[in-house]
Amino acid sequence: MAKEHIEKDIIIIGAGMAGLTAALYAGRMNLRTLVLENSLVGGQIATAADIENFPGFERVSGMELIGTLEKQAMNFGAEIDEFDRIERVDLKSTPKIVETETRVYETPVII
What we know:
Blueprint: E1 4-7, E2 10-13, H1 17-28, E3 33-37, H2 62-75, E4 79-82, E5 86-90, E6 96-100, E7 103-107
Parallel strand pairs: 1-7, 2-3, 3-4
Antiparallel strand pairs: 5-6, 6-7
């Protein structure tokens, strides 16, 4: 069975702090934004018990910080796809291609 082909304005690989921040700003620009994560959203910072050096927070857990950022990104329209492993990325084609286990995405921009 052929995989579904989907077009996005921007695809972000990885749903850690950097990926979710990029998704937040891309979403605010009204770009059709997709974040691909092969496991849980959050990355390494999600395991931090207390973060005391992040602007705007006196003290916050990694999970709370990631949860807030994920919610903000989604509120601006970013789609987050967890547990869909990337099988292939083609950066030379136009548009660029990201193929996961379930879909093939086409996009002009990959972060």
